[in-house]
Structure formats: C-alpha cells, structure tokens
C-alpha cells in the first residue's frame, strides 16, 4: 500500500486549464475521494495518477518514487471504470485472471489468486459464468476483483457505481467499502455524488473548475465548510448575506436589510476568515440546525410550504422577507399547515460564517 503525493500539479489542454496548482497528500491505506461537479477536473487528476496523462507542471510520487512520467503498466495500480470494460464473452474467472496472465504467473498460482479474490467479492459460485449472464452489480464486482487480483499498491475507481440503479448502488457501495477495509489498499474514488463520497471516504477533496475548494473528513467538509461552494454542494444549507454588527466576548452579531438579527460564535468562522464591524459575511445554517420553540436566535415566521419525507418534516418559513428551510425530525406529532405561525430557534453553535 503506497501513499500518493501530488506536488504543484497542473494540466492544460490547449487553453483549457483542467487542473490548477494541485497540492495533495493521500495516506497509505486511505479511502480518498475526488468530489465535484462535471468538468471540475476529477477524472483528469485520476488519469494523471494512473499515468494516462502526464502533468503540464509539477510532480507525482508514490511513496518516495517519482512516477510523474512513468508508464501506466509500470505503476502497479488497479482501475475500475463506470462501464466495467470487461470481456463479455469470457467467463468471470477468465476476466479476473487477465492481469495475472499478462504478468505470466503459473496456472496454479493464477487459480489460487482468482478463487481467493472471487470469494472476497462474494462471487464464489460464479467462476464459470459468462459476463453477459451477470447483473450489473455482479459485473461491477468482477471488475473490482480483476483490479484487485494483481495486488495493486493503489486502487483507482472512476464513478464505478453510476451505471447501477439506486438500490444496487447502495449495496455495491457497502461492498466496495468492506473489501477496501479488508485489504487496506490505498483507494482513490471519483464521484459527483456527495452521498456516496460522505458514506465511503476517510477524506474528501472537493473541486471546482480545476481548483481545490476544500480537503477534509466527511464531518469537516459537512460541518466546517470553508466557503459557499462547499456549503451548498455538500448537503443543503440556508445561505444568507449579512453584515457584522458587533463582535463581543466571542459572539458575533449580524444583521441584514430585512431586519434579521442572528448571533453566532467566533469559533465558527471559516479558517482564515477575520471580520470586523460593518463587513459583509455569508451565513450558513443547515436545515437540521433548527430546534423547536424559542431560544437562541428565535425564528418566528409563517409556514409557506411543507414537505413530509417520513423521517422529517421540512418547513419553508417566511421570516421578515427571508425564506428559511428547517428540517424537524418527525415523531408522529401534529404537523403545522401552510399559513400557520411557527416558532423555532437556532443554537448559536449551529451558525457558520463564510467569507467567500
Ligand atoms: N483530453 C482532453 N482534451 C481537452 N480537454 C479536456 C480533456 N480532458 C478533459 N478536458 C477538459 O478538462 C476539464 C476537466 O475535465 P475532467 O474530465 O477532468 O472533469 P470531471 O470532473 O472528471 O468531469 P466528469 O464528472 O464530467 O467526468 C473539462 O473542461 C474538460 O472539457
């Protein structure tokens, strides 16, 4: 299992800067995810790690080895793509064995390794099945087995679940995570699905337009977003533009033109953000940050719209011309109706201050 170090890497295609000045350290054995919208540079970064593209600038290391311009087949990586790229007319065993045969292992070793990895991906009885006789989820597990059987130092997964339906996607996600933790292989996972990223990763890198917006654990990314892009891309949030009115005893009071006044804690300022009286600042409040009844930052308003999701009730509340979305866990108690008055509050520690 190897660590991956990316030092000041950029990739240009003509005038397009696909990845810009990337600095990244992925630890040995880590499950690390590249997350971001289409075109943000995730796949380009993965392809540079795989060796399909060479960087326009900077260096890539596996542990201490400079692999920046090493050919893909010399890097000992396993790869899984969204379209599986399996041989449909060949059996499961033949597909898994492919990389071992290229590496010229003897027949006995190949059989042992293939059998072992087939068990690991829970395809034990399917060795002699043809690929086109398997479901999508099973095919994806064959692709995973084929990538893992060569005992790669690094496993690269590019949107491996996007061809599966929702239920299968969730099952396969759990399988991939189980297999990865059993083997402890350094894994880099590319996705635009934030739920997948949150559920599977040790750490996540959020990208936009070829630039890193934040690197952190799922909890850090969710609860401590550095900027508006991360706050809105991961989960939902109420984003308000406010002005700093005062800062006293670690409490920041902010207001806006609609007469809203909110108070939060200086410890919830985004990293590096400093504010003074009169500064404009962005406030992020998650829908689940609201609590019933009056308290700190009491919100009294009219319910405009209600969504009942089973687990929760989402109230869209009009409060001094600002609409806020509040999510209250549903415990079978009476639900308010549109037009009703509602009173909730937002504990100070649930208010986050963002500068950009
Ligand atoms: N071979 C290429 N030639 C020219 N431009 C490219 C090439 N590969 C990627 N790009 C451009 O680089 C940018 C980043 O692309 P990339 O595929 O890395 O994004 P992505 O985040 O993986 O998106 P997606 O989720 O859609 O795959 C895009 O603007 C894309 O058009």
UniProtKB/TrEMBL annotation:
Major enzyme class: hydrolase
What positions does the domain ABC transporter occupy? 4-234
A Pfam family this chain is assigned to:
TOBE_2
GO function terms (MF aspect)? ABC-type transporter activity; ATP binding; ATP hydrolysis activity
Q: Which GO terms describe its cellular component?
A: ATP-binding cassette (ABC) transporter complex, substrate-binding subunit-containing
The record's annotation in PROSITE patterns points to:
ABC_TRANSPORTER_1, ABC_TRANSPORTER_2
Q: Which UniProt keywords apply?
A: ATP-binding, Hydrolase, Nucleotide-binding, Transport
Give the E.C. number(s). 3.6.3.20
Any keyword ATP-binding?
A: yes
Q: Which domain of life is it from?
A: Bacteria
This protein is called sn-glycerol-3-phosphate import ATP-binding protein UgpC
């Amino acid at each position: 299992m190897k660590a991956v170090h990316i030092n000041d890497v950029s990739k240009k295609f003509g005038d397009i800067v696909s990845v810009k000045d990337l600095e990244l350290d992925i630890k040995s054995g880590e499950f690390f995810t590249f997350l971001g919208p289409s075109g943000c540079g995730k796949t380009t970064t993965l392809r540079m790690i795989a060796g399909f593209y060479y960087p326009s600038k900077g260096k890539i290391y596996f542990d201490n080895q400079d692999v920046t311009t090493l050919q893909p087949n010399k890097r000992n990586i396993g790869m899984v793509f969204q379209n599986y790229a399996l041989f449909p007319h060949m059996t499961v065993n033949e597909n898994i064995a492919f990389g071992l045969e290229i590496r010229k292992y003897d027949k006995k070793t190949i059989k042992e390794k293939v059998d072992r990895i087939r068990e690991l991906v829970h395809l034990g009885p399917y060795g002699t099945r043809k690929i086109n006789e398997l479901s999508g989820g099973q095919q994806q597990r064959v692709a995973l087995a084929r990538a893992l059987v060569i005992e790669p130092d690094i496993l690269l997964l590019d949107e491996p679940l996007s061809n599966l339906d929702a239920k299968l996607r969730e099952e396969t996600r759990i399988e991939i995570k189980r297999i990865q933790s059993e083997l402890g292989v350094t894994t880099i996972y590319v996705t635009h699905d934030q739920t997948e990223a949150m559920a599977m990763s040790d750490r996540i890198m959020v990208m936009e337009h070829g630039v890193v917006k934040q690197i952190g654990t799922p909890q850090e990314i969710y609860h401590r977003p550095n900027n508006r892009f991360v706050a809105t891309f991961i989960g939902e949030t109420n984003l308000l533009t406010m002005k700093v009115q005062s800062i006293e005893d670690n409490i920041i009071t902010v207001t806006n033109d609609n007469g809203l006044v909110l108070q939060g804690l200086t410890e919830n300022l985004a990293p590096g953000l400093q504010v003074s009286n009169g500064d404009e600042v962005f406030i992020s409040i998650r829908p689940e940050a609201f609590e019933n009844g009056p308290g700190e930052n009491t919100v009294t308003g009219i319910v405009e719209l209600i969504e009942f999701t089973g687990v929760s009730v989402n109230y869209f509340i009009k409060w001094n011309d600002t609409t806020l979305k509040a999510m209250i866990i549903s415990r079978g108690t009476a639900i308010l109706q549109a037009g009703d008055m509602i009173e909730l509050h937002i504990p100070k520690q649930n208010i986050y201050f963002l500068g950009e």
